[in-house]
Structure formats: C-alpha cells, structure tokens
Amino acid sequence: MARLIFSFFLLALASSFVLAEEFSTSTMRGINLGEAYSLSLSRSETLALQGQEVELLRGAEQAARAAFRPYASFNGTQFYQDTPSAGVSGSNTATSRRTGALNAQYDVFSGMRDYLSLRASTSDTESARLALSRARQVMYVTAGNAYLDLFLAQAQIRVRQRQIQVALDRVKELQERERLGRSRKSEVLAAEAGVAQYRAQLRQELGQERVAQQSLQFLTGLETDLAPQSLPGQDNRPLETCLATIDSRADILAAGKTLESADLRVQTQRRQLWPTLSADANYYLDRTDTYSGIKWDFTASLQFPLYTGGKVSAQVSQAQSSRNMAAISLELAKRQARTEVRQYYDKLHFAQATVAARENALDWAQRNFQAQSADYRYGLVANMDVLSSMNDALSASLELLQARAEESRAAMELEVAMGGPGEASR
After folding, report:
1. How far is CA 59 from the centre of its chain?
2. What is the pLDDT of residues 60-81, one digit of tens each?
3. CA–CA dist 368, 393 (Å, integer)
4. 36-75+114-276+293-425 belongs to CATH 3.30.930.10
C-alpha cells in the first residue's frame, strides 16, 4: 500500500513538472502597453475620486458666480395677536395682519471681493483639474510597471523552459555515453540534478507570473490571463530638450494656479476694509395694515468699516502666509521636476549601455557553452565545465531580460517626468 501511495506521489510530481514545462501564452489575451494604460485610466477608482473633487470645486466656482446676480424671493407673513383691551387704540391693534411681497436684493459694490473670490475659485478648479491630469500621467508608470513585471515573468519562464529542454538533451547524451562507457554515472547524476534545480526555479517563476497577472488584471479590470506583446520603445532626446518641457508639466502648472489663487485671496482679505453698497426693494402684493396703500419701498445701505479690532489684519496675515507657502511649494515642485528628469535621463542611458553589455555577455556565454560541449565530446574538458558554461548562458539570458525591462522602465519614468505620456501612448 505504501509503495502504491509513493507511486501516485511520483506520478503527481511528474505531472506537475510536465504542466509547468508546457506553460504557454498562446491562449492568453494579448495586450500592449497603450491598451493597458487606457484600461487602467478608465478603471481606476482613485482617479474617479479625484475627478469628483474637481466637480466639487466646479460647484464652488458656480456658487461664487451667483454673487454677481440679484436675489429675488416672495415673502409672505400672517400675523395674529390678542384682542386689545377696552380703551386701547392705534395702528397696531388689529388682531390679524398679513403681508405678501416680492423682494429683490443686490450687492452693488463689495470692494470687488466677489470678483476676486470668483477668480480664486476658478484658479482652484483649474489647479485640481491639472492635478488630476498629472495623476493620469503618473498612472502610465503604475500600469507600465505592472505590464513590464508580467512581460518579464513570462519571458523568464520561456528562457527557463528552453534551458530545461537543453538540460534534458544533455542528460540523454550523457546517458548514452554512460551506456558506451565513455561517461561516469556521477556525470549523469550531476546533469539530472541540474534539471531538478531548473524545474524548481521554474515553479518559483510560475508563481511570480501569477502574482504579476493579478496585479495587471486589477489595474485593467480584465478577468482573463494576459500576455504582454512587446516592450515599449525609447525616444532618445538631448537632456536640454527634456528639461525644456518641465514648465508645461501638469503638476507645475497646478502649483502655479494654487499660487495665483493664494494671491487673489490675499487681495480679497485686504478689501474687507473697503466700503460696501447694497440695495433692497419690496413690491407689496397684499397688505392689510395701515400701510396698505404703499405698494413698494427701496433701501440702499452703505457700510464703511472704520475699526475691526485687528481681525482683518490677522486674516490678511494668514492669507499672506498661505500665499508664501504656495510660492515655496511651486519652487520645490520645479526643483524636484528638474531632478527627476536628470535622474531618469541618466538612468535610461545607463540602462541602454547595460543592455548592450548584456547582449555582448550573452553572445560570449553562448559561444563558450557551444565550445565546451564540443570539447567534451573529445574528452578535452570535464562535464562540470559544460554544466558551468550552460548555467552561465542561462544567467546571461535572464540578466539581459532584466536589463531590457529596466531600460523600458527608465524610458517610461523619463517620459512621465517630462510631462507625458502624449496621446500616442494611450
């Protein structure tokens, strides 16, 4: 019974290895970086929430516009009082009075505070809209990283599968040589141990592929296995050209709008000391008191602040501090943007140099493996030399994949640092 259970265990283990080595992306849904980015934009709840914040500010802007329009209403009252005592007379002794009137109010002049508040609200809305635009640009890196992680995981699996097949062919060759007495049993075992090691690494890489699948599916909202089609290309431009795009970056423009809004709010607070003029008018539709013959009235109110106990100066000081903070934030954003462009520019160029070096290293590693394999057939090198050269070729292949992925990652980061991506990337 124990022998039967052990046999089933070996069969299940062998089946799992076969399934792992038959991994294929042919049945998966193909996707490119542009599509992954577009789907991520439409699926992101974070961006949707930020979009609603913009709508809230648009509502506040519309409310500020209302200050330029008059306010009209219908006001009706019904008044009751006790019956007056004997001997009490006058205009206010009626037990019931009612009034119905149309009322209009308008702030004729308020020191231009309403105009300044509207401009500040407009700047706030534009700043939030630009911040949302920047968040959409940054999503390109988020979606791109998930895309590259999955692309790299699947490419590593394909390299590992090819390496396992090469190793299995090597085992068959050694087994034949052992049968002819030209190789030792230990050489066969060493090759088989290498195959087992490659298979264990393949299982680990399959697990990493599943994690990468889930990450990209979460961002795109797709519920099927995905197969990235290719790596994005690079657009090499001089550093000066890259730095010239900073001032038009959405987050820099947003910080500028925030500073503009803060400047306007300083002016708004200062103008609390300006005089204000308002108008109020009533047209009476129904009056039952002694004023029933009067159909309308009009009131003009002028207010000139003389002393506010230091309240206005304190509010101006607060607004000025907010303005100074906005100016500092703008300068910080510009310096950070310049640093990001320089960092990612250098990162991209070093990544490109690394790719070239890795390609050269892989070429030499493959040549060495072929030479070692040929020399082994003539008994010029040991089996361990062949296995070592095979491992070197595998490592060089995987390192080249990593280098190419990092090159694409750096290109995406530089594009976003420059204020991209453009419409062509969507």
Report:
1. 25
2. 999 999 888 999 999 999 888 7
3. 8
4. no
State the CB neighbour count (10 A cutoff) for residue 240.
7
pLDDT per residue over 358-395, tens digit each?
A: 999 999 999 998 998 888 888 888 878 888 888 899 89
281-311 per-residue burial string, b: 16 or more CB within 10 A, e: under 16: bbebeebeeeeeeeeeeeeeeeeeeeeeeee
* CB neighbourhood size of 45 (10 A): 7
Question: Over 50: is that where the pLDDT of 183 sits?
Answer: yes
The answer to whether the CB of 299 falls within 8 A of the CB of 277 is: no
DSSP output for 181-205: TSS-HHHHHHHHHHHHHHHHHHHHH
On whether the CB atoms of residues 389 and 368 are closer than 8 A, the answer is yes
Q: Inform me whether the pLDDT recorded for 198 exceeds 80.
A: yes
Rounded alpha-carbon distances, angstroms, from residue 37 to 149, 212, 318, 425: 14, 16, 42, 8
| Choice between 82 and 156, residue whose per-residue pLDDT is larger | 156
DSSP-assigned letters across all residues of 327-391: HHHHHHHHHHHHHHHHHHHHHHHHHHHHHHHHHHHHHHHHHHHHHHHHHHHTTSS-HHHHHHHHH
Structure-model confidence comparison of residues 187 and 353, the more confident one: 353
Question: Tokens 């009476």 label which residue?
Answer: 284
pTM: 0.82
Determine phi and psi for 326, rounding to 5 degrees: -65, -40
